Amino acid sequence: MKAKWIIALLGAMTSAAILCSVVLRQHVASSHAQPAPTQTFQVRGQVRELDVQNRVIRVEHEAIPGYMPAMTMPLPVKDPALFNGLTAGDRVQFELAVTRDDSWISHIQKIRPEDPAAVADLATNADYIRTNETERVQVGESVPDFRLVDQDGKDIRLNDFRGKAVVLTFIYTRCPLPNFCPLMSKNFADLERRLSKEFPDQYQLLSITMDPIFDRPAVLKEYAARYTANSGHWSFATGDPLQIQSIARSTGLYYAWEGGLISHDLRTVLIGPDGRLVHIWKSNVWTPYEVQRFVADLLVPDAKNRRAQFRPPASFLPRPTKMTLTSLSAGFLRHLTPSPCGSR
Questions:
Q1: What rounded mean pLDDT belongs to the chain?
Q2: Residue 130 half-sphere exposure, CB side, CA atoms within 13 Å?
Q3: How far apart are CA 205 and CA 189, in angstroms?
Q4: Which pTM value belongs to this model?
């Protein structure tokens, strides 16, 4: 009897020691975890547009030496209080924070009164954006054919991909902000893996540069190698600037060269096998899984209905369990207690 109590005590102590070891390792790991390094840049520019609902400030900014050329970008804002007192046309100085996977305006302040001429220019710019959105191809309409050159120097046309689902986005290779063009390309790399498993040879990804003068086929080929080894399912395209401008206009993308600067927002487009527009994502918040499900619903018409109708039986769902120190100790006791055939 005394031996059994000793065995029980040893089992409980062993259980407690294991649990303490696990907790200690987790504590040590968390104490050693380092936050992602953040770079900050002090930048001057002019507010072009305020999107309070989506927490975005479109700003035409000066060059950031050694990091980013002058351009106009829609930059995220995490603190909504930064919008207070700002209007389109304001000259500002702001702090741009950048990590490996994100970028945002962390501080902003006015530096001089707004310029009436600049405000008038911004009003014209806003009218152009609204016109671009209303004149774009609408869902269900055919997307006009276009001709570009891929990363291998081959001519490609949109109509070459008839019979396939086409997912199209816009990038440029010199874009340094991680949650803009690099994020689009990372998402496309994930999407390529997903669609290759589910719909091999039934899809085409197309990344079109907004900087066709610099992004020639050789530059795009080097860029493409960072994200994919399969040029058959994913094309990186350049071409005549007017042609690319026409494609941008047909998808509602605001994209323009303004005084040598690239001013743009983001668009990702799904085109059906029949060449008709299916869906447009107007920002960078879409996920590869979301687009994969859109493609599945497009290529397998009843897939959406099957998912909606599927209800797993109760026996399929795991039952909740409760692990306690007592039950864990009991498990160790069963393991350490000699079996009847081994007892004397």
A1: 78
A2: 7
A3: 10
A4: 0.64
